[in-house]
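Reopening this ticket.

The earlier resolution said the output was attached, but the attachment link was broken on my side. Pasting everything inline this time so it's all in one place.
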Amino acid sequence: MPNKTIYTALKKKAEVVAGEIGMPSFYRKYKQEIEHSSQNIAQNPLISRCKTCLSKARLHPAHGIAHSEKVALEAGAILQIEAKRSNYQHAEPGEMLLSVQIAGLLHDITRCEKDHSITGSIEAGRILADFPVKENYKRYITAAIRNHEAFREIIDSENEDARLISNSLYDADKFRWGPDNFTMTLWLLLEAAEIPFEDLYRNFHEKVEGIKKIKTTFRTDTGRRYGPEFIAMGIAIGTEIYKEMERFMEGGTRYAADY
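Inline output:
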């Protein structure tokens, strides 16, 4: 049976399970901050310029514009939440919000390249060269992109503003390792790479175990509070996907008849 038929059925199962589980509580708790972040993304002309750059770039199929926009949105929300929670006073909150959103949009712009956090940081610096953004914020953005990968050495931030932007970007990106990973990212990756079903089945458990490790890496208080829930929900969806794969391995063509 063609991979496409199998993967269509598995994706449908993932969507059903995700609907049953519901949304992570982060979205219910912080509607106001998410809405404010969304408004800035929709209205700021520099965000539009970043999106134009993305549309011209060679993006990774599973880490494209939709992924980057969601990271930008939630990184903006996390930054606001963290600032309020810690009573952190920054003189330019608008610039802080814009900076973390730009970092979110551009963080995977070289995702197809080796060491993409490094090359992406360099490419973001090139893009931002003629942006009307203060030089210190340009540094914060490129440093955040440099630091956004998991299980890599973290480069020290130059100050608290830079650290907040960097950590907010990281946590928003790792929220994507939850339900999004099993309802969107996985299927885009499989389609682009044309991975045989047997390979997916054989390696699935190991990949899920790797995702579990993300739970302990969140960097902000908000991430540490809500990130594990994202990951747990994703794992729950992945567990049901694996059960469906086992059904197929046991039942062969009878599997497709159920769909």
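Reporter confirms the inline version is readable. DSSP finds 13 helices and no strands in the chain. The two ends are 14 Å apart (CA to CA).
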